[in-house]
Amino acid sequence: MSSYILSIDQGTTSSRAIVFDEKLQIVGVAQKEIPNFFPKPGWVEMDANDIYESVIEVVKEVLIKTRVMPVEIKGIGITNQRETTIVWDRKTGKPVYNALVWQSRQSNDLCEQVIRAGHSNYIKEKTGLTVDPYFSASKIRWILDHIDDGQQRAIAGELMFGTVDSWLVYKLSNGRTHITDVSNASRTMLMDIDNLCWDKKLLDIWNIPEVMLPQIKESSTIYDYTDFLETEIPIASVIGDQQSALFGQMCFEEGQCKNTYGTGCFLLFNTGKKRVNSKNGLVSTIAWKIGDEVYYALEGSVFVAGSAIQWLRDGLKLIETAPESEERAARVPDSGGVYVVPAFTGLGAPYWDQNARGAIFGLTRGTTRSHLIRATLESLAYQTFDVIEALENDTNITVKGLQVDGGACRNNLLMQFQADILHAEIIRPVNFETTALGACMLAGLAVGAFKSQDELRMMYNVDRRFEPMISITHQSRLIQGWKKAVRATMEF
Ligand code: ADP
Q1: How far apart are CA 84 and CA 436, in angstroms?
Q2: Which of 144, 164, 266, 422 is the most exposed place for a label (fewest CB within 10 A)?
Q3: Coil, helix or strand for 151?
């Protein structure tokens, strides 16, 4: 009998189930899109039942596709969209409100109240995070304020809170187990990330009763068993999606970092067993806990990356498919002095300017469609440069190599330009399904399918390395232009 690990990757637009074999090879994938609701501008919600049901569907589908039998699955790993907040009834197990998705801004006013009350410094010190509706705390508060008797019911222990990982484990264990892992807990804005526990004062600030919170566990252990496939399978890892990608890239050691080029860019830098506080607009977060060992990371997120390529396709109609951007951009040797700053929804790390909006600079009569496409692709690399620069200032470490994944890392022109602009090596693995891979590896470690991280590391296969090919002078000149463009965008 063969043995496999099943990874569940629960995201904002879809749920995926991926079966991996003992060599970390993908045996099969199933995916299902899930509706998002936009009740008001800036609000994003999902139905928590859709989330769970889509997971069950994709798991069943991938087993049929691959003909893998449930008894051959040694463990299930869960990785998930982070921060998204679900509150449900302890007795019935039914959600009391839609899931508030990480992007949703409906708790903006609550965050402003907390900032006005002067709690920002305490929150930053305990959680490593900047007060923002992005994180779960204000979303929980918002739900309790918008259902009948929310606060009383929460105090009476009638309600349970969880991020998507907690919700899935709760449902998969038939309501027996209410847990989260440190990586997800570190995004709630309620956890003391040094002591790995819910913090009383943070709970007071947000007025959230502790009885509704899950127990915080490590990221790789058997939490419980699920029997929905008619055999008992251990649920053996839980980890937030970005941290999972860091693990899946085998960035196990301090100083290693990865960048995911998806809708946005998420750069995580492993800071080892110590927490590093950012002075440059990054957040400190927990990477994972295995046994007694906790690893920390610095994180920088760029809001608009791959979605700028979608804008070229759907908004400007300059390309028909995202991959076409590469061939189009390659028709010109450079962007011809054009800079695109895709601040469509403001600027994320390290600028944090909610009000900035996109801009194009350097247009001439000679500017062509290819220049615009190229400049848009280049903006992903420049934004990544800004995050790395902040990181280097925070850590005094020069980043010499960056491991990449996410849909847009397929673009060779972009990866070459990234190497040029960072003046660092870009390393693209063969398997860039690193998010699902991280959860698979952590589950495999928990059930003994893999012996050690060293064993895992041997299975990392590089697809391609990109080395810098332009001079430092040329690189600095390009960066100067970018900085000017960003400054002008923020001043506009
Ligand atoms: P997410 O997980 O955030 O949905 P993915 O990792 O699936 O994102 O990546 C999809 C994004 O990558 C899309 O925004 C798409 O525009 C972009 N993308 C995909 N392929 C390419 C490519 N070859 N060149 C540039 N961008 C691409």
Answers
A1: 18
A2: 422
A3: helix
| Å from CA of 71 to ligand 1 middle | 35
pTM for this one?
Answer: 0.92
> Measured on CA atoms in the order 427, 345, 319, 362, is the torsion positive or negative?
negative
374 Cα–ligand 1 center, Å: 16
Distance in Å from the first CA to the final CA of the chain: 64
* Helix count and strand count (H, E) for the chain: 16, 23
pLDDT in tens, 406-430: 999 999 999 999 999 999 999 999 9
Q: What count of residues does the chain have?
A: 492
Question: Which residue CA neighbors atom 15 of ligand 1 most closely?
Answer: 306
Distance 273 CA to ligand 1 centre (A): 32
> Over the stretch 425-474, which tens digit does the pLDDT of each residue have?
999 999 878 999 999 999 999 999 999 999 999 999 999 999 999 999 99
Indicate if the pLDDT at residue 382 is higher than 70: yes
Ligand 1 atom index nearest CA of 264 = 3
Residues 6+ apart with CB under 8 A from 75: 5, 6, 222, 233, 234, 235, 236, 237, 443, 444, 446, 447, 449
Q: How far is the CA of 404 from the centre of ligand 1 (A)?
A: 13
**Six-digit token string for 38:** 């936009």
Residue to substitute in 13, 263, 412 for testing ligand 1 pocket (most ligand atoms within 8 angstroms of CB): 263
pLDDT in tens, 103-131: 888 999 999 999 999 999 999 999 999 88
Name the nearest CA neighbour of 164 among 312, 316, 50: 50
